[in-house]
Amino acid sequence: MTRDQRGFSLIELLIVVAIILIVAAIAIPNLLRARIAANEASAVGSIRTINTSSVEYAATYENGFPAGLSKMGTAAAGDTTASCGEGLLIDNLLTAGVKSGYSFTYKDGTGDTPNAAPTGGCIGWNLYTVTAQPVTPGTTGQRYFYSDQTGVIRFNATTTASATSPPLQ
Known about the structure:
By secondary structure, this protein is of the alpha+beta class. The chain has helices spanning 10-61, 69-72, 92-96, and strands spanning 98-99, 102-108, 128-134, 144-148, 154-156. The chain is 36% helix and 14% strand. A 5-stranded antiparallel sheet has the order 1-2-3-4-5. The model has no long low-confidence stretch (mean pLDDT 88).
């Protein structure tokens, strides 16, 4: 006696589901590591952008480094006039301080005396620091980053990076 067999048996379906689950278990951690690496690369690029924009701001307005990310930021929609209050040097995401899973903090001249404001009426500083920390450590990023007016980007794998952290290679 022969039977016409149509479709898949329950065992065949369970085997296919098990194979899919095994492949997913291998692929998902790699995907998360790739996302963390991409976020860290974006954070380093953003710090480079902030460093370059700070130097450009200081050269343009001749009063030192800006008093915050908002001074280097973009203007309101439709306004294309740069000023020392809105330098049009960085995008709105960086101006807001959060981009690609990292939070950025820019501090002007701690322990520094502000410079006079010869161009545009904005004060400037001789020193600044910028830090980037993962919004959710271990998920959006692993490492913490730091830079200052020297332009050297430093990192720490476990806590907030500082001027004494090793430089990024």
